[in-house]
């Protein structure tokens, strides 16, 4: 799971399963569209969301490799 913040007054944090992300758009705010069709406006930039997804995937794959040895 990656932590993001909903675009609102409270900047509400939430955790998202990156496997559900279909796309990330900047229009002009950053929106994450899920495979379910749900669209979420977030405070992070497109680059920040992508970096968190990449870091999460590296962590998952590293853990899988570590356990397979």
UniProtKB/TrEMBL annotation:
InterPro entries: SwrD-like (IPR009384). Pfam families: FlbD (PF06289). This is Flagellar protein FlbD.
